[in-house]
């Protein structure tokens, strides 16, 4: 039997361009071989033989609790019998095919399955928690984008838009001051950072998908809130915001998730708070916000070039949005920062008052309407609505509110498919006000 399995695995590995659905079978072989078990002949084995399509296999996977469980805590519950059963040459992972091919198979597994794979034995657990698989996936361009969001204080969920799975993260442990403070979030590398204020200082909480746990992260060199931020692979940049005394900042910092450190960058040309940040064409942009001594929104943007370490101001990059100047009595401080997202190096903005999506024309420095927002996308001056890029699609997270808590909906649109046609990916009863949202690609 091993001879047949080995032949199948080697054939699957012969071409990196073959359809992803074939890797579903390797995933089950990884689990079966490493457990030292014969292939199941009944029950689950029957459906494996019948599931010839990726979509069929995924649908049935969800009935298997082990494969749909986000938590890596299973790995810590392995009993002595399993540990004693580890192969003596466990460094090869699946000793019948060797370490390199074993890792090649694991790279093609969905990352939602890594918790179950880590529970097989100590070698798999060590590999998963080392982050090596995610580094290799990034090098090969194998990236899955998940949406992380919070609709309840200190509670976070994750949504897999490919397999349409909802997952709960462990509850954050912090004091009431942090719970009630204004919080910012960003996803970088394999980490989700949530930044807020406790009684005496600003703090950073770090969630790691490698361990499925929260811990205190490294504080910024210059703590702040209401800042612009964006991530690119293993790095993220934050800029502007307010310091603990309420002063509006022009400073910026770069975070490296591999080292867990912050590095101070050159200052922007203007101080600004309540601004938004994006990466586009490998450069970091800060857009919108409120400056010093002027309660109105800034219309200029700034671009930071990582190679030259210089900031460049872009006049009139983001004219007064959500109604012309003077058309609304809502002060700038009551409005949400600009709702921005970048897909394939193209910048989009959600104009919530007009219920429009606009695209930035880089050559002409102006915004062009390309469609509308989902009908049930509700916000309070932009607050409570998430507008994000998720791979090649735009994602809107939000929904109608009701006395019983409302409904959270995830809508997606691929701009390459023409005028905005939003698809409802999933919905469920939940708090429909989105406090924080970040997209992690790894």
UniProtKB/TrEMBL annotation:
The keyword Ion transport does not apply. GO terms for cellular component: nucleus. Keywords: Kelch repeat, Repeat. The keyword Repeat applies. Coiled coil: none annotated. InterPro entries: F-box/Kelch-repeat, Kelch-typ_b-propeller, Kelch_1. Residues 69-92 are annotated as: Disordered. Transmembrane segments: none annotated. PANTHER family: F-BOX_KELCH-REPEAT PROTEIN (PTHR46122:SF9), GALACTOSE OXIDASE/KELCH REPEAT PROTEIN-RELATED (PTHR46122). This is F-box/kelch-repeat protein.
């Amino acid at each position: 039997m091993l001879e047949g399995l080995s032949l199948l695995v080697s054939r699957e590995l012969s071409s990196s361009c073959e359809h992803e659905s074939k890797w579903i079978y390797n995933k089950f072989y990884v689990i079966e071989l490493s457990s030292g078990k014969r292939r199941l002949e009944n029950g689950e084995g029957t459906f494996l033989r019948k599931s010839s399509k990726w979509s069929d296999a995924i649908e049935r996977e969800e009935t298997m609790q082990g494969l749909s469980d986000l938590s890596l805590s299973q790995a810590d519950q392995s009993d002595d019998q399993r540990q004693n059963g580890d192969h003596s040459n466990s460094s090869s992972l699946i000793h019948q095919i060797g370490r390199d091919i074993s890792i090649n198979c694991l790279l093609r597994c969905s990352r939602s399955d890594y918790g179950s794979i880590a529970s097989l034995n100590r070698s798999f657990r060590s590999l998963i928690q080392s982050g090596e698989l995610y580094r290799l996936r990034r090098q090969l361009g194998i990236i899955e984008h998940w949406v992380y969001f919070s609709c309840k204080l200190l509670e976070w969920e994750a949504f897999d838009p490919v397999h349409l799975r909802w997952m709960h993260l462990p509850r954050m442990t912090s004091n009431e001051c942090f719970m009630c403070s204004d919080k910012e979030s960003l996803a970088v590398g394999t980490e989700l950072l949530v930044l807020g204020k406790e009684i005496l200082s600003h703090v950073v909480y770090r969630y790691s998908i490698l361990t499925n746990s929260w811990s205190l992260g490294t504080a910024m060199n210059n703590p702040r809130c209401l800042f612009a931020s964006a991530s690119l692979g293993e790095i993220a940049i934050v800029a502007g915001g307010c310091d603990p005394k309420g002063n509006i900042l022009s400073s910026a910092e770069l975070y490296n998730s591999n080292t867990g450190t912050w590095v101070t960058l050159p200052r922007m040309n203007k101080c600004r708070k309540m601004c938004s940040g994006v990466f586009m064409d490998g450069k970091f942009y800060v857009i919108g916000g409120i400056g010093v001594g002027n309660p109105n929104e800034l219309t200029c943007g700034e671009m930071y070039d990582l190679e030259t370490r210089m900031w460049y101001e872009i006049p009139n990059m983001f004219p007064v949005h959500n109604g012309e100047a003077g058309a609304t009595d809502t002060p700038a401080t009551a409005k949400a920062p600009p709702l921005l997202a970048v897909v394939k190096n193209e910048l989009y903005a959600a104009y919530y008052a007009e219920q429009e999506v606009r695209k930035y024309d880089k050559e002409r420095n102006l915004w062009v309407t390309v469609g509308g927002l989902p009908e049930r996308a509700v916000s309070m001056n932009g607050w409570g609505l998430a507008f994000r890029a998720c791979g090649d699609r735009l994602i809107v997270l939000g929904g109608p509110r009701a006395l019983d808590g409302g409904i959270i909906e995830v809508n997606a649109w691929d701009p390459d498919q023409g005028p905005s046609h939003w698809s409802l990916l999933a919905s469920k009863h939940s708090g429909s006000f989105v406090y924080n949202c970040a997209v992690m690609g790894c």
